[in-house]
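Supplementary Note 3. Input sequence used for the single-chain structure prediction.
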Amino acid sequence: MVRSTAAGDEKILSYEDVVLRRSDLDILSGPEFLNDRIIEFYFSYLTSSSPSGTILFLSPAITFWVANCQDAQAISDVLEPLNLPSYNIIVFPVNNNEDVGRAEGGSHWSLLAYHKKGHAFLHHDSSSGMNRAHALRLFKCVSLFLDASGSLTYMEVADTPQQVNGYDCGLYVLAIAKVISDWNEKNKEADWNWVSEIKKQVTPANVAALRGEVLELIRSMMGNK
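The predicted structure, written as discrete structure tokens, is reproduced below.
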């Protein structure tokens, strides 16, 4: 997604390819909708915390661009170097922004996850399928890069924990991504379905606590610079 920077919104941390700013701390300090920078930061953190290297977390910017690009060759030019078929799991953040020219647009985040062993994409939406059309559009854009036969399955996960307010959707995406990442590291030979772990671990209390945990993670990294 396109990003805008307000005057005086200074950089506070560079982590991998992500630059966080003072306004990102403000978002995490209060009950606000997460922006793409925070999600990209946490996905980068999960990547560095996943030693197997078998899971890929795509950034919101790449996911949004792929889902909205009308040029098949341009999409191929972006996705081919990522070597998507080499991963067991690929996690895509989904945003409902319809305006490709609007910075930080959209009002809802959800998560689409591909699992090679399950031969399927699972869409986890914390607001009753609000992003279904957007997730399906993304699925259609990327599925053929993973299986040229077109036989991959798309599933809406009805048991996805539901948010209890209008602003924590991004935190649900982070919490679900963390569960999938941990599940991947511990269950490489087990049943491919991680839904039961998400139902157990992604609770309103745990999601609310995650906001503070991410904030403290960023502050600790700032202190180590």
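Strands lie at 11-15, 18-21, 55-57, 89-95, 109-115, 120-124, 153-156. The chain has a mean pLDDT of 91.
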